[in-house]
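Q: Hi! First time doing this. I have a protein sequence and I read that you can turn it into a structure. Is that right? Here it is:
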Amino acid sequence: MDLFSRSWAALRAAVAELADEDLAQPSGCAGWLVRDLVCHLVIDAQDVLITLATPADAEPTRDAASYWEVSATPPTGADPLDALTVRLAAAYGEPWLLRFHLDDVGSAAGRAAGLADPDLRVGTRDEVLTVRDYLDAYVIEWTLHHLDLIAHLPGRAAPPAAGLARSRALLEEIAGASFPASFSDTDALLIGTGRRTATEPERARLGPLSGRLPFVLG
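A: Yes, that's right. Below is the predicted 3D structure, encoded as structure tokens:
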């Protein structure tokens, strides 16, 4: 739960430091500008608030790793929900409005996470998780989107090292395999989720795992 808070705070700080012109740059999410990604983060924060306010009595059906639906097809930005995010982002008009909305809703989501009982069961997407597992699952969401945010913005602060390490471990649990020790956590995440194509030497080091990539989380 601490990693959730640290990863989320770092991502929100990175957004707060963006200049207006940065929001018009491409992001690491196919088909999305940085402003579209920030709008998606607003929606993510709303989802966190809704889930933490949706207690469940049933036994957990998912944990942090199995929370994610895994696909081998990277998004293109053409999905109806992805396209809706682009329209919503454009509707903000002024960049400061988008940053303000993320700070407002995002801060509330962070506070709610900090106050939540980690053993409480919550419902989301017709599944039940403990708060601990739900927030753990979101560490990889915040970390990957932090990498997406700075993909074309050189010199910006990277996600926290602990968040990168936990996200790699979670991706390896999802994959049922380990990435080569020579891969940095960032490279393992980018290559593993299809955000970057592996080079020939990297593919050789990946071995059989190379043929199973990417693991697209949704």
